[in-house]
Amino acid sequence: MSRETAITIHDIARRAGVSPSTVSRVLNGGTPVAPDKRAAVMAIINSLHYRPNVVAQGLARGKSHSVGVLAQEISNLFFGQILKGIEHRLRGTGYYPLFASGWHAHEAIDALEMLLAHRVDSLIVVGGWVADEYLLRVAERVPLVAISRSIAGLEDHCVQVENFQGGYEATKHLIDLGHTRIAHVTGLPHHPTRSTGGRAIERRSWTPACASTPTSSRKAISKSLRARTRSSTSSAARSGSPVCS
């Protein structure tokens, strides 16, 4: 056992000449402590390079100071930017993110249960296929916010992405460049982002192609380019991985 993990608040209390409860109050910072006693405790803590056990503190306080973040896929550029923003916003707040992901519903549920087992104080769900009914039950246990999806019954806790406007502007840009036959590589037909962003593109002349993985995305683009009515360009909606055309 290392020196750091062997040190307890009882060791610090004995060396500082105070009670363990005084050390606990100094560490927690919620209750006033006499300046001389605080100074004595901090001097011992610094000399021993003591670090509190955040897990034990969380159990004692009933708060872990962690935010669970469940994403559909961490490696995806779209999700990655959202996760980076969450991490950046939590920095300096005293809370830290715990990330987990699951592409398929059963994987996502396993990941979600793992986050709950770590006693996260709240949960952020980014996209995904977990059923609304399941998330509603989870929301009864911890505060929950959803990004890039809507949950019936938790509409006020959902942050929507402007997929429709994004699809419209991307299509308009290609049309303004002179393209008239546009191939749209999207996600699965029943995916919510496909049903919103896709509708904006479908209002124009386009060649549909559905894909859910990087491999199928590349195949969809190749098929579109080989089509009898050749596409002059292609647009790719979020389908799990970035697509180059």
Kindly summarize this structure in a few lines.
The protein contains eleven helices and eight strands. It is α/β, with parallel strands linked by helices and 245 residues long.
Indicate the CATH architecture of the largest domain: 3-Layer(aba) Sandwich
Q: CATH fold name of the largest domain, please?
A: Rossmann fold
Mean pLDDT across the residues is 76
| SSE ordering | HHHHHEHEHEHEEHEHEHE
Structural class: alpha/beta
Low-confidence stretches: 204-212, 239-245
Strand content: 15-25%
Strand order of the largest sheet: 2-1-3-4-5
- List how many beta strands DSSP finds: 8
Helix content: 40-55%
Query: What is the global morphology?
Result: elongated
The rounded Rg comes to: 26 Å
Q: How many discrete structural domains?
A: 3
- Largest beta sheet, briefly? 5 strands, parallel
CATH superfamily of the largest domain: Response regulator
CATH class of the largest domain: Alpha Beta
N→C terminal distance:
55 Å
Total of DSSP H or I helical runs spanning 4+ residues: 11
Write the layout of secondary structure elements.
Blueprint: H1 3-6, H2 9-16, H3 20-28, H4 35-48, H5 54-61, E1 66-71, H6 77-90, E2 96-101, H7 105-117, E3 122-126, H8 132-139, E4 144-147, E5 158-159, H9 163-176, E6 182-186, H10 192-202, E7 206-210, H11 214-226, E8 233-236
Parallel strand pairs: 1-2, 1-3, 3-4, 4-5, 6-7, 6-8
Helix pairs in contact: 2-3, 2-4, 9-10
Structural notes for this entry:
The chain is an alpha/beta fold. It has helices spanning 3-6, 9-16, 20-28, 35-48, 54-61, 77-90, 105-117, 132-139, 163-176, 192-202, 214-226; strands spanning 66-71, 96-101, 122-126, 144-147, 158-159, 182-186, 206-210, 233-236. It folds into 3 domains: 3-52, lambda repressor-like DNA-binding domains (434 Repressor (Amino-terminal Domain), Orthogonal Bundle); 61-159, Response regulator (Rossmann fold); 163-236, Rossmann fold. It is built from 11 helices and 8 strands. Helix 10 (192-202) links the parallel strand 6 and strand 7. The radius of gyration is 26 Å and the shape is elongated. Residues 204-212 and 239-245 have low confidence and may be disordered.
